[in-house]
Amino acid sequence: MKQIAIFNHxxxxxxxxxxxxxxxxxxxxxxxxxxxxCDPQCNxxxxxxxxxxxxxxxxxxxxPQKPRNIRDAVRPAFESRPYMISATELFxxxxxxGLFLLPxxxxxxxxxxxxxxxxxxxxxxxxxxNIPGALHHAIRKSxxxxxxxxxxxxxxxxxxxxxxNLFMTSDAFILPMAPDLFSSMxxxxxxRTLPKWAEWGxxxxxxxxxxxxxxxxxxxxxxYLGSAVNNFRKRAxxxxxAKPTQAxxxxxxxxxxxxxxxxxxxxxxxxxxxxxxIYAAAHAPPNEFLMEIGSxxxxxxxxxxxxxxxxxxxxxxxxxxxxxxxxxxxxxINDVFRSFRTGAEKVIALTDMF
Length: 354
Known about the structure:
Blueprint: E1 2-6, H1 15-28, E2 33-37, H2 43-49, H3 70-73, H4 75-78, E3 91-92, E4 99-102, H5 112-121, H6 134-145, E5 150-154, H7 161-168, E6 172-177, H8 181-205, H9 208-211, E7 223-230, E8 234-235, E9 243-244, H10 246-269, H11 276-281, E10 291-293, H12 299-306, H13 315-318, H14 323-352
Parallel strand pairs: 1-5, 1-6, 2-4, 2-5, 6-7, 7-10
Antiparallel strand pairs: 3-4, 8-9
Helix pairs in contact: 1-2, 1-14, 8-10
């Protein structure tokens, strides 16, 4: 199982949408995929369920020893329960076999401060030693039980302890962003933050108490798979392939500059880049975007109601769009499909080589 963190501490970059669409595409390509909702807002869980008409949360755990959400999955470690972390009952997509959800829970945020304390003091207080490795252990147990190939971790837009822990116990990460000023600022912020996280992760993985914990902290340095830019306008000129409009292209250029001058330098110094030949073999150079996903317009609302990605919408059966409107939307659906298929193939190629 490859655990991939989908992360950016800037909100509004279509992080959850990217996680859902990429996971669905990976399952279309024959992989068994688990989407893990670690954002207490639970947007991924809502997206997976679609237009859910219920007053009660369907993934509350009836028994503390049979977890049905991420909060209850790690409860044994955080609340010192007299039983071990076990596999969570996953929810399989009704529309795509091999695609599973490990549901989120608003209550996961209650463990944030406790995890922060454990990160700082677990080297001296044995009572905290089982907490830092708990999240990855819970994810791994579920992945093993369901024979999962990829676990995609949807994270909140913050630099808190939960995200730090999830990021530094993942095999790899993807950075979603939007073509705007604040995404450019966020890249430079990540260039300062991620090396600090890497240094902390290295110390945690070599800590004697964490090594002998019931849930040992994982010794891994996450690898940069690439970045994805979302929600921009494209325009075709003549017979050329559609490209970002001039206004958006300016921000593409600024993001590329921030990546090359700040982010990639920081990641290389922290050994969070793969070998150049791996990127080359996967046709995924790190200075380019792993995926470029244009604006989804009105299709995203339809997709959310159907609990499907945009590229799986059947306009004839799923919508009332007809005529020129349907033709325009079909072109967009085809474009989104190609973009996510290309991105998923790159992810598979990259992760097959490490």
